[in-house]
């Protein structure tokens, strides 16, 4: 296993099924030719023909690869980065293990729970807030967390009223398709406008909706967040609990375990640039370095926002092309780790939409008395400007002095081009279930296109990886 937990070595003694041997025989001449044409770029001994190729080693691709390899299929994962995990990135900051991307899961996320159990990975609870800083008429006010979350719960109860009916079965979002037309067309901002709330209460809601929309609340769909709310049990406490649990070893530990126990090979630093479905039944996947790999079936497990950077031949079906153009991943998903001094308690802070920092969550207290916080920033904050970051933090917590910080702008990341996903108005009915369907010998995976805990949850990535593996196995025959 390499330092990122990937399975670097293609084990020569792995079990290969009869189907694979037959296909490999047909592909040998092809592989030799390719090896020759890519001389100097691909090793002569490198295998270029596989039973299945998975593009992207995030949770969706990792799940699909593990499942396909478990069926005896020789499976290659082509990963653009030098690490697995994609939008899950367990890194370090201020000497501590931190999550640069996704950080939590919650109870009731059954795929994650089952997988954690399978690999004996334990979990711990996140730090509870001891004070809440919330918008007031003139600025901000400090409250007991129970009071603040209680009021937020009341407001969100109004905001999502009716969602228990139109998302009667939230794991099957189209179960009450008959009720969804107007809901799906409604943005978060429009829904807020329907409620007739006081200005302060509007700020309480839009500080939260604009975080999840990763931009203006007008860009995020009500249906997207209402589905999460119902998945979490239809209460605000349930919704908060989706950010409560952490796996031992970080969010990456489960994916590492999944791939370490698999014969699937991960090839790093291999961004895919083109996928061509051939008439011979083999699909060719070309990487930026010019090396091509072939397989009867290919799983595309990169973020939807990245699809537009890959040349598909034949082109993507209309629904996929539309999603790629519109984007599903939110534009601004800037997560900042802060080490601060001068704050004696564990503050949860939330600011109105448009603020430079929209949300701050308390994390660990360090031995020297300083504290770690996670913040989510709005598009207006220049994270390269330490003075601006300090001012944005003091806007919420005036006594805080930022010692150091680490920001990740997922919207600007080449291999994500967006953050987590939140469907835009209309995308649910326009895209599901068509976007989950195979296109010839190509199948699609990713939390962005999951049915249940889609978009902002590893749970959905695993769901879609399992579905993609089933579809791929059928295509492979
Ligand atoms: C800031 C942030 C916070 C989040 N918080 C949470 C949370 O608390 N809990 C939670 O459950 N989820 C959270 N999420 C969402 C979660 O991270 C994602 O839903 C999930 O990780 C997506 O998995 P995936 O496999 O679908 O996509 P990805 O993780 O994006 O994996 C796709 C992979 O494809 C690779 N790739 C891209 N382009 C190419 C190419 N051309 N060729 C080859 N490979 C390519 C990428 O490098 C990546 O490894 C968060 C996301 C972000 C950004």
TrEMBL record:
Gene3D superfamilies: 3.90.660.10, FAD/NAD(P)-binding domain, Guanine Nucleotide Dissociation Inhibitor, domain 1. Its EC number is 1.-.-.-. Keywords: Oxidoreductase. Its cofactor is FAD. GO terms for molecular function: oxidoreductase activity. It is an enzyme of class 1 (oxidoreductase). It comes from the Bacteria. InterPro entries: Amino_oxidase, FAD/NAD-bd_sf, Flavin_amine_oxidase, Flavin_MAO, TAT_signal. The keyword tRNA processing does not apply. Residues 63-471 form the Amine oxidase domain. Signal peptide: none annotated. Belongs to the flavin monoamine oxidase family. This is NAD(P)/FAD-dependent oxidoreductase. It comes from Streptomyces exfoliatus (Streptomyces hydrogenans).
């Amino acid at each position: 296993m390499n330092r990122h937990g990937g399975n670097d070595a293609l084990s020569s003694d792995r079990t290969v099924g009869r189907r694979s041997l037959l296909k490999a025989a047909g592909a040998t001449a092809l592989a030799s030719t390719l090896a020759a044409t890519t001389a100097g770029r691909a090793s002569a001994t490198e295998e270029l023909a596989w039973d299945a190729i998975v593009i992207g080693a995030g949770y969706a691709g990792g799940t699909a690869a593990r499942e396909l390899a478990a069926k005896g299929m020789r499976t290659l994962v082509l990963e653009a980065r030098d690490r697995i995990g994609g939008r899950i990135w367990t890194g370090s900051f201020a000497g501590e293990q931190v999550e640069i991307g996704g950080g939590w899961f919650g109870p009731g996320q059954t795929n994650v729970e089952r997988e954690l159990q399978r690999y004996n990975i334990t979990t711990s609870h996140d730090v509870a807030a001891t004070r809440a800083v919330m918008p007031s008429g003139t600025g901000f006010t400090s409250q007991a967390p129970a009071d603040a979350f209680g009021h937020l719960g009341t407001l969100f109860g109004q905001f999502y009223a009716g969602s228990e009916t139109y998302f009667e079965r939230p794991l099957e979002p189209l179960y009450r398709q008959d009720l969804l037309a107007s809901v799906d067309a409604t943005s978060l901002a429009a829904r807020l406008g329907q409620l007739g709330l006081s200005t302060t209460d509007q700020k309480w809601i839009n500080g939260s909706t604009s975080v999840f929309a990763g931009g203006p609340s007008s860009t995020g769909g009500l249906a997207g967040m209402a589905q999460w709310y119902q998945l979490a049990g239809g209460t605000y406490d349930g919704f908060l609990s989706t950010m409560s649990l952490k796996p031992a070893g970080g969010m990456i530990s489960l994916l590492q375990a999944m791939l370490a126990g698999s014969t699937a090979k991960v090839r790093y630093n291999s961004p895919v640039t083109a996928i061509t479905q051939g008439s011979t039944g083999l699909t060719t996947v070309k990487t930026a370095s010019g090396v091509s790999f072939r397989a009867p079936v290919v799983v595309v497990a990169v973020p939807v926002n990245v699809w537009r950077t890959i040349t598909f031949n034949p082109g993507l079906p209309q629904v996929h092309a539309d999603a790629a153009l519109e984007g599903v991943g939110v534009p601004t998903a800037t997560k900042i780790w802060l080490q601060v001094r001068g704050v004696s308690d564990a503050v949860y802070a939330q600011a109105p939409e448009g603020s430079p920092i929209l949300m701050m969550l308390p994390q660990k207290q360090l031995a020297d008395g300083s504290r770690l916080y996670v913040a989510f920033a709005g598009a207006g904050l220049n994270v390269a400007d330490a003075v601006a970051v300090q001012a944005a933090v003091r806007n919420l917590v005036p006594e805080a002095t930022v010692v150091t910080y680490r920001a990740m702008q997922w919207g600007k990341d080449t291999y994500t081009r967006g953050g987590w996903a939140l469907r835009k108005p209309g995308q649910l009915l326009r895209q599901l279930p068509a976007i989950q369907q195979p296109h010839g010998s190509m199948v699609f995976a990713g939390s962005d296109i999951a049915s249940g805990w889609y978009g902002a949850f590893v749970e959905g990535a695993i769901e879609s990886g399992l579905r993609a593996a089933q579809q791929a196995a059928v295509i492979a025959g």
